[in-house]
Amino acid sequence: MRTLGFGKFAVAVVASMLLAGAGRAADKIKVGKSVPFAWMFQVIDVGTETGIFAKHDIELEVSSFAGDARMQQALTAGSIEIGLGGGPGIGFMAKGVPAKAIAAFANQPKSIAVVVPFDAPYKALSEMKGKKFAVTTAGSLTDWLIRRGAAAQGWKPDDITIVALGGLETFLAGLKTRQVDALMLATEVTFSLEARKEARILETMDKYAPKFHTHLLFARDDMIAGKPEVVRRFLKAFFETIAFIKANKAKSVEITARSLKLPVADMERTWEGQIDMFNVDGSFSPEAMAVLRASLVEMGIVDAPPKDEDVLMTKYLPVKP
Fold first, then answer.
1. Which residue in 62, 71, 187, 291 has the fewest CB atoms around it within 10 Å?
2. How many CB atoms within 10 Å of residue 266?
3. Could you tell me if 233 and 203 lie in one domain?
4. One domain, residues 258 and 185
5. pTM of the entire structure?
């Protein structure tokens, strides 16, 4: 009987290992978006459609919610393992949600605007003292941003009224019926409203928070502890997808227009307006984190800014796609 020499045996072993790896089942991760309509959250959709997550042996089960608070409730319940949410979401960690922010993927909030009825007389936020503003949920990114904008005008907290309306349909209904005077809304959604002369962007919020992390990735503590390599692969795929979006405008616009059911022209405007918001390696900026920690005190979520170790997990950073 013929026997394999050592060299041929080694080649056979390596080949069998590669075949076994190719047949390995992908790790399934339950991922939640705090809202379904944010363009920057479509990293998940682009990475799935282009096969980037599959390349890293990741299969995603995706859910969407009506704001940060609802998503954080899902993290607490364990119905999702990783969440895409707003920077002020670290406040939920400070209040006991069993999760940590594991990466920052978007910086200054160019993507969020004060949106008013198309025929409203206002030309700037400074003219809207005493008005009602819709946010997704209490303690959310939109909640904090309008408070930040109001404070920049020198107004007291009770000089505006904040109304938590949840999802997009209730947002638009609230504006149409004049239940509120303005929405804190994603710019990409507003472009179509402007075309139909239903609403218009008054101003975007980046000037009120130029050093900021608009969006963070959160992971449950038990996933961080029990599946660190799965988290690492997820992050690698996620930031590889961001690199793809930055380098491939036409394809990413095509995918996001389809996933959000919005016109291609709106997605082109969105890509151009938001592409430089992306944080390419997930790292937390000390300046941005100082603003975020202070925001929790400003909103009365905590009495003192939380320590980084209580709300962040930085062992995966920087991410190198």
1. 62
2. 22
3. no
4. no
5. 0.86
User: Which domain covers residue 238, as residue numbers?
Assistant: 26-109+212-311
Give yes or no for a cis peptide into 318 (omega within 30° of 0).
Answer: yes
CATH number at residue 185: 3.40.190.10
Q: Are residues 280 and 291 in the same domain?
A: yes
Q: String of b and e for 161-187 (b: at least 16 CB within 10 Å)?
A: ebebbbbbebbbebbeeeebbbbbbbb
- Asked if residues 52 and 240 have their Cβ atoms less than 8 Å apart, the reply is yes
Per-residue DSSP letter, 261:
T
Q: In this structure, what DSSP letter does residue 206 have? A: G
Q: What is the pLDDT of residues 235-279, one digit of tens each?
A: 999 999 999 999 999 999 999 999 999 999 999 999 999 999 999
Query: Does 217 share its domain with 304?
Result: yes
> At which residue do the structure tokens 């603003």 appear?
291
